[in-house]
Amino acid sequence: MSGYALEEVLGRNGRIFQGPGTDRRSISEIREAIRQEKPLQITLLNYKKDETPIWVLFHLSPVFSREVGRVTHFVSVQVPIWVNLQVFGSGFCRSSGNSRVLGSRFCRNSSNSVDDNSSGTREFVFGSCRREVCFDSVGELGRTLPFDSYVDSDNRGLEAEESCKANHLEKQKAATVVSNILSTMMHYSEKMGKVICGKRCNSIGIVPLSSSLNISLGRIKQSFVLTDPHFVDMPIVYASDAFIKLTGYSRHEVLGRNCRFLQGPDTDVEVLCQMRESIEAARACTVRILNYRKEGSSFWNLLLISPVRNASGKIAFYVGVQMDESAKNDDQGLSPEMRQLAAVGAVKVAVRGLSAGVGPSKP
């Protein structure tokens, strides 16, 4: 994607991909995320080795030492974004029905559909050790020219005709790649005896649940998770023992992550869209989705998702109650669906009763 050879990139700072049109404010946001040791998703104008500009979705994620809680690395994934661009005085132009994307072989037409003329989107991944970002390199990240300065005396400049925004699939793709990289790093770090993770002990800055709420949730025997909608990617902030048993993941592998790690090659995209639309509309939904356990086996999950409001009526969490389709009625004759509804009700009662101790909530 960048045109650089591996040996040209290793050991160098990510600023080699910046150019005259790179937005200083975006670089400042990256610098601030590094300073605060927090994840970030942002659109960024980068440049290939041949100086061709390319818009990317830049996803940054810190890597922490589990033993001491300090940052050891930063992982970054760059996913190309399809946008409408025009270069004056060049062979690239935007017609009424189609637009060509600089530095890419993808096109988006006026209806926002994507024509893929290549083998597929590639992610460019690089890591920076903590030592690199703590000193002069951090300050130099912001030393780029204003966007307007890219227009030279020949009026050959880059102009974004539309605001450059990544779509949901691009955001999900970047987050999934980062998650997979972190999982691989965690696996090998355990073998080396220097265990790392993708979050601090309090889960990437998320306010921990109160002990009272944890106790109340621990009494609920169903498989469920709580996610926090006020953070990027709706990370899991609570996972029940039954969920751990059902999926095979340990709790430290789950907390702070989005539930998409349960998805696999045969998971239905339409079902995922249905879930996303329900969350955006703040309404409950029930779906049948193919999920995967840690060891790779699949199971049909009867998933109930519902917003959970605090005592003020504001959404504090979303609860997802999982039920293996093969599950039978329990000893009391309750169906899986009834047990799901009972679990959601118990979670809502616990959150409303103890909402004063669970941290901030937003509309």
Structurally, how many domains make up the residues? 2
Query: Which structural class should the secondary elements be placed in?
Result: alpha+beta
First-last Cα distance: 40 Å
Classify the fold: give the CATH topology of the largest domain: Beta-Lactamase
> What is the name of the CATH class of the largest domain?
Alpha Beta
> What is the assembly state of the chains in this entry?
single chain
Strand count = 15
In round numbers, the mean pLDDT is 75
Q: What letter string, H or E per element, gives the SSE order?
A: HHEEEEEEEEHHEHEHEEHHHEEEH
Percent of residues in helical segments? 25-40%
CATH architecture of the largest domain: 2-Layer Sandwich
- As a whole number of angstroms, the C-alpha radius of gyration is 23 Å
Coarse shape: elongated
Output the CATH homologous superfamily of the largest domain: PAS domain
Protein name: Putative LOV domain-containing protein
Domain PAS: 236-282
Domain PAC: 283-337
Keywords: Chromophore, Flavoprotein, FMN, Photoreceptor protein, Receptor, Sensory transduction
